[in-house]
């Protein structure tokens, strides 16, 4: 009888333990799936950006040099940084030793800083393109773009690999009590202030002020464009009335140069809007982390759960997967290039090269422009041919 009671107690305890572990198992599987999805989206999405720019001549502009370099940095984040953080979440401990731990922390700081410096370069490029368009061809040459990219890739070394491998970033207490199965990024107060300022606060301030100037100038140009369009409509109506009275034909006053300038201005505004959304998404993803990073580094007595650290890190990592989605949704040129690249990747019957596709796009634009020619202009051209 006692044996039966013992068996029942053991069975009941096992069932209760299984019921307690079931939510944890489900949450572990969901968390693992979400983190893997972020890694895959970051790699494939940014690879799509790079391939699309390489295949389509229309996207090979100076601004997209920075976009491609940013996509490459995001791919490295997904392939070098995210997998180690994923392994910590999977095994609940660090299994790679202290050297790889320093390499991981260094790469994390390096690629994060590189990403925001790319966005800072993009904001400067857009500033000259919209606020100072006459100086843009002189200032933003290919040579200048490569110099900016070189500085963007080299300067973060000063706050990542060098101080971390030299041990300047952390406290003496952490170095003495460091364990092999743990990889904490325990920093001292001077490093926290300097690294966060260089990686986030200073570039973020520059971007905010440049984009405020960009959108202020863009709104002014939009108002001037609408006013010019209104005046042109009044002049068109007046000239048509005079022409009807005199029995003359009205000739369209718009010139190809003016239309080309208007289209160029609209294209610059769309590019600035898309890149402004990318900057806003970056700030929303990384601002919570840097606030958390700076506050916990300066506060010695602050306690926080480990899950907060995980959420902050992966919210920032998610930004690497977000940029291609923003390109596809807000930029028509990137959206069309993505569609074509994916079609050629998944459809075996697609044999056209990128140059052929660019030629087809030019033919489509010419045919659509011919369809939009005003009727009076057509009549004038017909009379001229007679």
Automatic annotation (TrEMBL):
Domain G-protein coupled receptors family 1 profile: 45-327
Locations listed in the record: Cell membrane
Keyword line: Cell membrane, G-protein coupled receptor, Glycoprotein, Membrane, Receptor, Transducer, Transmembrane, Transmembrane helix
Cellular component GO terms, alphabetical: plasma membrane
Gene Ontology biological process terms from the UniProt entry: adenylate cyclase-activating adrenergic receptor signaling pathway; positive regulation of MAPK cascade
InterPro entries: GPCR_Rhodpsn, GPCR_Rhodpsn_7TM
Transmembrane region(s): 33-53, 65-84, 104-124, 145-171, 191-214, 274-295, 307-330
Source species, domain of life: Eukaryota
GO function terms (MF aspect): octopamine receptor activity
Record carries keyword Cytoplasm: no
Membrane topology: Multi-pass membrane protein
Pfam hit, one: 7tm_1
Main location: membrane
Family, as annotated: Belongs to the G-protein coupled receptor 1 family.
Protein's recorded name: Octopamine receptor beta-2R
Organism whose genome encodes this protein: Parnassius apollo
Lineage, opening ranks: Eukaryota, Metazoa, Ecdysozoa, Arthropoda, Hexapoda
């Amino acid at each position: 009888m006692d044996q039966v009671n013992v068996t029942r107690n053991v069975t009941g305890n096992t069932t209760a333990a299984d019921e307690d572990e079931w939510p944890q198992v489900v949450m572990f599987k969901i968390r693992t799936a979400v983190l893997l999805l972020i890694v895959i989206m970051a790699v494939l999405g940014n690879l799509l950006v790079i391939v699309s720019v390489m295949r389509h001549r229309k996207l090979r502009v100076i601004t997209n040099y920075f976009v491609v370099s940013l996509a490459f940095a995001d791919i490295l984040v997904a392939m070098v940084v995210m997998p180690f953080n994923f392994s910590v979440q999977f095994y609940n401990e660090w299994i790679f030793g202290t050297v790889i731990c320093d390499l991981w922390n260094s790469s994390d700081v390096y690629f994060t800083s590189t990403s925001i410096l790319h966005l800072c370069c993009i904001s400067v490029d857009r500033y000259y393109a919209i606020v100072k368009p006459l100086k843009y061809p002189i200032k933003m040459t290919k040579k200048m773009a490569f110099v900016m990219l070189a500085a963007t890739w080299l300067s973060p070394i000063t706050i990542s690999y060098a101080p971390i491998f030299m041990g300047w970033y952390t406290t003496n207490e952490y170095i003495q009590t460091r364990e092999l199965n743990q990889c904490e990024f325990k920093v001292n107060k001077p490093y926290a202030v300097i690294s966060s300022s260089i990686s986030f606060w200073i570039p973020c301030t520059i971007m905010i002020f440049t984009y405020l100037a960009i959108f202020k100038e863009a709104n002014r140009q939009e108002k001037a464009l609408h006013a010019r369009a209104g005046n042109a409509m009044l002049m068109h109506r007046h000239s048509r009335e005079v022409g009807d009275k005199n029995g003359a034909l009205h000739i369209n006053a718009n010139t190809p140069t003016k239309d080309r300038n208007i289209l160029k201005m609209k294209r610059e505004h769309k590019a600035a809007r898309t890149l402004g959304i990318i900057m806003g998404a970056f700030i929303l993803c990384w601002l919570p982390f840097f606030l958390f990073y700076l506050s916990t580094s300066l506060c010695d007595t602050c306690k926080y759960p480990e899950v907060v650290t995980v959420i902050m890190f992966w919210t920032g990592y998610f930004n690497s997967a977000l940029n291609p989605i923003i390109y596809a949704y807000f930029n028509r040129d990137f959206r069309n290039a993505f569609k074509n690249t994916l079609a050629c990747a998944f459809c075996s019957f697609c044999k056209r090269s990128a140059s052929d596709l660019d030629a087809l796009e030019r033919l489509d634009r010419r045919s659509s422009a011919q369809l939009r020619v005003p009727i009076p202009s057509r009549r004038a051209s017909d009379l001229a041919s007679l």
